[in-house]
Each structure stands twice: as C-alpha cells, then as structure tokens.
Amino acid sequence: MGNKTSQKVLLELLKDRDRWVSGNEIADSLGVTRETIWKNINLLKKRGHQIQSQKNLGYKYESSSKLDEVVINFYKNKSVDHVAVEEQVDSTQMYAKNYLATHQVEKAFAVISEQQTQGYGRRGRSFYSPKEQGLYFSIVIPKPTFEINQVGLITTGVAYVIAQTFKDFFPEREFKLKWVNDILMNRRKVAGIITEAITEVESASTQAFVIGVGINLTTPEFPEELQQKAGAIVAKNEPNIDRNLIAAQLINTIVDNWQNYLDGSFLSEYRRMSIVIGKPVTLQVGTKQVKGIATDINEYGNIVVKLDDGQVKAFNNGEITKVNLDW
C-alpha cells in the first residue's frame, strides 16, 4: 500500500504544484490519516523528490533528482500513450524495437532510461550515457502516413523542435543545428538524434518510426575522445533542473508536431540556426567523401553542397565529419 499511496500523494502535490497544500487536505482527498501522508512524504523525499515542508502551510513540490514514471506521465499529453521509465537499459532504441516486435502498438509511446550501457547514434557510433546526468529516450510513432524517403524532414524537424524546447527551459543559451541530427551549444554537441524505420517484410511498408534522442544535460566530464566535441547544457554549480518536466515537454513536442514536419514550415528557422550553411564541409556518404561549400538545406531537409568541381548536389543522407565552426 505504501508504494501506491506515495504515488497518490505525489499526484496530489503535482496537481497543486504552484501552491502550498496542507497534510490534512491531502489526507481528506485520499481518505487516509495525516500520519500516513507524513510517512509517504518522507518516503518520496528518500526517493529523490524535493518537497518543501513548512509548518502551518503544508507541502510544496519542487522537483526530483531522479526520473520518475508518475511525474513524466502526469505531464505527458493525450497524444502519447505512455512513457516507461527504466533504471538501466542497453539502449532505449533496442528496448523500443524489441517492444514493437512483441506488442501491437496503436499510439505513440516512449521509453526513457537513467542510463544506457550500449547507447548508439547514427552509423552505430556509441553515445556516452552516464547515470542520472542526461536524458536518453526513444519515441515510437506507429503506422506513419509518410514514406521512408521523407525521413530527412523528420530528422531535421525533430532537431528543430528539440532546440526550441531547450530555448524554453534555457532562454539565456544559444543553440545551433548541425545537419542532420546534432544540436550544439558553445560549439560542443549537447544532443543527438537517430531516426530508424521499422518495416513489415510482407507488405514492404513502414510499421513504425523509432526516434532516439540523447542529451548531455548535466554531464560534468566526458571520456578523453569526446572532450573536444561534447558538452553539457547545464553546469555543475547551477540550480537544480527538473529532468522529468523537460523530458515530458520534449516527448510531447516531438509527438505533437509529427504531422507538421512534412510541410517544411520549420525550415527557414532551421536554416537560421544552422552552423553549416555557407561553410566548407566534408560529407561522408557511404564509403565516399564529398567536399565543398554547404549552400542550403532544401525543402526536403537535404543538404545542398557546391562541390569543389563546381557541381551543386543535394544529399539526403550522410554525415558531416568536418565543418568550420567559426560562428
């Protein structure tokens, strides 16, 4: 009963997050004793929830140092079926794809984990995912109404709305976009995106899209090979941030904008935030290297490059391995 009661107490606090709520008020609402409320408040505090307590005023919820399924699902929109929270997974992408293989999915859902042991990004590159320092999640969009050849608009669209959500929470920071899937701050990568299509072999149609997002939120240190490339959004000495609220808002925004990505309405803003347009770039496309000046992100979300031989070509896949970050 303690666990279920503590969840109910937590929900009562979340409903009235902007004001003090007395223990008697919560007790009356749940039909339990005042002592039960006190015990469960202490239990929530032990689990990492910051809850203010003040005599004659009661309790006020602040945030949590840990990801919490009750909190994230309280803030999720109706467009998202459920958000599962795990302590540790190999990768949220693998978790989501395994879930799809054994369940019938009719509505968008997400999984988020405190830690990944085998987190990965594009081209199978590992994504450093230390415990309780980032946000690592995957969203499943079942039965998409568009084709896999439109995935350029999906990845660029998701990158754009994530950067916009970051600006809502961290308005004093400046975020930039590196085609196709990286978000940067202070010339360091703070977030990456991977989009994978799950196809049905029999019908050769797309069963679902799985969007993986890895964010370095408070990561204080990185392995040596990443120290010059990766950075965190929030510094060590800054006030506590509510990872649950940020996670819920990101998931809501990505899913709610799903139908808007294909119209390309975000592209003018994406271009404004791009660090590659007008810059010399080296693009890895399969086993080939392409060099030239990035001149545009076109209406399909593809990068347009004026090659060294004067040709102008658009690329819908590949990875920019080198760009002059003089911005």
Helix and strand arrangement:
Elements: H1 2-15, H2 23-30, H3 34-46, E1 49-54, E2 58-64, H4 69-75, E3 83-86, H5 92-102, E4 109-113, E5 134-142, H6 151-169, E6 175-178, E7 182-185, E8 188-200, E9 205-216, H7 243-256, H8 267-273, E10 280-285, E11 288-297, E12 303-307, E13 312-315, E14 319-323
Parallel strand pairs: 3-4
Antiparallel strand pairs: 1-2, 4-5, 5-9, 6-7, 7-8, 8-9, 10-11, 10-14, 11-12, 12-13
Features:
28% helix, SH3 type barrels, Arc Repressor Mutant, subunit A, Bifunctional ligase/repressor BirA, repressor, biotin--[biotin carboxyl-carrier protein] ligase activity, 14 strands, 29% strand, BirA Bifunctional Protein, domain 2, alpha+beta
Structural features, described:
A hairpin with a 4-residue loop joins strand 8 and strand 9. This protein folds into three domains: 63 residues, Winged helix-like DNA-binding domain superfamily/Winged helix DNA-binding domain (Arc Repressor Mutant, subunit A); 204 residues, BirA Bifunctional Protein, domain 2 (2-Layer Sandwich); 47 residues, SH3 type barrels. It is α+β, with helices and mostly antiparallel strands. It is built from eight helices and 14 strands. The protein has a seven-stranded mixed sheet with strand order 3-4-5-9-8-7-6, sandwiched between helices. Strands 13-12-11-10-14 form a five-stranded antiparallel sheet. It has a two-stranded antiparallel ribbon with strand order 1-2.
